[in-house]
Amino acid sequence: MRDDDTQPISRMAVRNRWYDLFSRGARDWLRHNQKVRDAVRDHLPDMVTGSDILSRPGDRTLQVPVRFMEHYRFRLRDPHEDDGVGQGSGKPGDIYRTGGQPRRGKGSGEGGSGEGEFQFVLEFKVDDIVDWIWQELELPDLQPKTADALQDDELTPEGWDRRGPRSRLDRRRTVKEAVKRRAVQTDPVPFTDDDLRYRQLSRRRRPAMNTVVAFILDVSASMDANRRKLSKAFFFWATQGLRRQYGNIETVFVAHTNEAWEFSEEDFFQISATGGTVASSGFRKVRDIFDERYPSAQYNQYIFYASDGDNFADDREAAESLATELGGRVNFMGLVETPQNRFEAARSETGRLFKSLEARNYPVSSYTVHADEDIWEAIRAFFRRQASTAQSA
Amino acid sequence: MEHIHGPEMSNEQLADYAPRIEALAKDRGLSFYPVDFELVPATFMMEVAVYGLPVRMPHWSFGVRYIYQYVQHRMGHSKIFEVVFPGNPNRAYLVDDNALPENTLVTAHVLGHADFSRNNQLFARMQHEVGYHIVEQAAARANRIQAAIEDRGQRRVEAVLDAALALESNVDVNQGLNRVDYPVTRERPVRPQAQGFQRHYNQLPGEQPLEPPPAQERVPIPPAPEYDLLWFIARYAPELEDWERDIFLAVREESFYFYPVFACQIMNEGWASYWHARLLREAEFLPHRVYLDAIKTHSDVVRPYAGDDAVSLRVNPYHLGFSMWERIMRDCTLDEALAIRRDEDDFSFIRNFLDEDLAAELELFNYTRRPGAGGEERYIIRDREIDSLRENILSPKFNYGGPRIYVRSMGLDGRLDLAHDHHNDGRGLDVNRSRKVLNYIHRIWRRPVRLETVDHAGDPKMLTPEIGEK
User: Fold this and answer.
1) Domain residues for A64?
2) Contact criterion met (CB < 8 Å) for A72 and B376
3) Is A352 exposed, middle or buried (0-12, 13-18, 19+ CB in 10 A)?
4) Domain residues of chain B, as ranges?
5) Which of A1, A217, A230, A324 is most deeply buried (CB count within 10 A of its CB)?
6) For A205-255, how does the pLDDT look when each residue is reduced to its tens digit (9 = 90+)?
7) Could B381 and A86 be called an inter-chain contact, meaning their C-beta atoms sit closer than 8 Å?
């Protein structure tokens, strides 16, 4: 025994449930995730063009695999080789390989980065991402076009009348009238013609919010998988931008070579075909579909056409007249050009056609996309244009 | 638990065992400040293990460690038995889900730590400097930092913590916790009298006698290489605000507090393991069943990582320390053993007491890691030579486990010139990580910062923060 006899003795507290309330670890973990989100957000262009970004159609979230953030410390360069101490019955010269054996551990209390690679998945709402892009581009919030834009007739129930077709008889109201009348009459009959009430409809104008987007994809042999991927990425984000503006969007998918066909979204990007490029076939198909199902009187119409820009010389006149016709009636028509050679952009057949329409003040524009990093620029350009037309409207 | 083993096997029983184990420990020669034991939920324990302290400053990097620990825990790979914070009183946390035999063992183990931390010189010095109430101090600081977050915003506080915590091990424990600033001036060293031609020249006819230089000269900052980066930044950063300095000094104080635990891990865990085994063996009041279950836990804890015929590339510090202390207690008197526990740290302990016999018995070997032809790592058992065994065990512990980085000079414009002692570290720094750390420092130092190290070829390489990093 030493000098401890005067010391108070130890305490043993066996129950202390309030510790359950601590959750600092979870709090700091959430903060970490917030930082990851911010970091991802700072790298929007990479994210927008990343190959895995396009999840299944209709999926309103994107799953982005991310790594833990590392809190950096000074560290020595990884040596080519180094020494350590192990334990066991091995003999000098024995060789062990990674996989079967654990790596040499670090001292306790060391920061937990390098130990094993965990990955986790953060889910981002597509709407959030579009919002971020909007902020990043400092674009104004868009209002649906109202003033001179398309107008729909709409019949809404409004008020009542004593005369009308039988089908609009309002029974509840009629009985109410009868009850009121009977209450003040001394010898009432159950119903009179004066009790009848008919619902009235009124005709109103309302801004058209219906929107149709037609995607035309050139699937001739020269459009390889990479060009389609680029087109798809652009289509996806352009649609998201339109969704921000219009609540309800319908989509039409048309592929063409020298003929054109309509496809479902699932099949659309799988198609491959052989044949030459006749752009007018695609335009004609879209025009017919619009005429049949999405009349311009009721729909905002958008067309995106993805092509490497080649077109048969024979088709020049037909393509020009159809493109001009469509350009004159749609809200917007865009060309996503994936040229064979970066420097051929806008010198191609179709590129020139769109440029000339744009020069004549049609709502037409073209975007050249050669590699992943160009998509960001193209989307910026498209969104900027959307924002400015919406403001001037 | 209760309905399986009956009430006598519940943790309530600890309240009865603890004072008796304590009395036994004192009788066997241990001396310690009292211990406040608390049984806490496993989730809380996990946080204590992650943060190093029960209540500590918030930082996202703890969140990352927490998730690692959480995943490990859920996969059943990690079981935490106890955490003890030296002080007066000591504070010990036990897990309420662990069974009575485990917690009985842990109680004895904690008393071993309590004896060690009171009597070991390094622990005693740090305790004296830091104070004996680290848990409360850390909690108070955490509150101050929380208040700073509310006052200054999360981003600003985080920037300070990013830098301070990254430099956690860049302290100089030899200089002590409480340091005074460098002197502003110092005596100018006396020049030797001019000799020979110079003397004659000075005395040429018409030559004025030289003015004697002023006796004081300005001391450069720092006067000598400064390894305590946390202190230097706290004292000399040109535009540091008081609340930021407060955070730097808080991190530094906690770092000093953690140092003995780091530098005595093998010795301290070995000592506690030796005493928990011995105290339980000699505690005749324990029911047989409790003892047997406890000893099973003991053998799990001090088990070598290598199984019967397996080979492990790591050494379990509990196993190594325990084996060394068993040997010492066999060969020495109790007073000699207590003196070793008082005077040594892991460096001297391993060098003085891990001898060839014991190393052979423990089957320790040196290996070399070398990439194979296909890029896979190959570990080649080299030899069992005792001196390299000792140094290889110790090398991860030198300099608090980090590279030796010091302040070389501070320019009059506030430029911070750091350098890396690559000669003693044997190679240069990891360039990418080091630049990220320079980013952290730059945000706090707010003047140019650079760091000199060497590249692969051993040629000097100057690192600067990444430009444009927000």
Assistant:
1) 24-70+117-136
2) no
3) middle
4) 403-463
5) A217
6) 666 667 888 999 888 877 877 788 788 888 887 777 777 777 678 888 898
7) yes
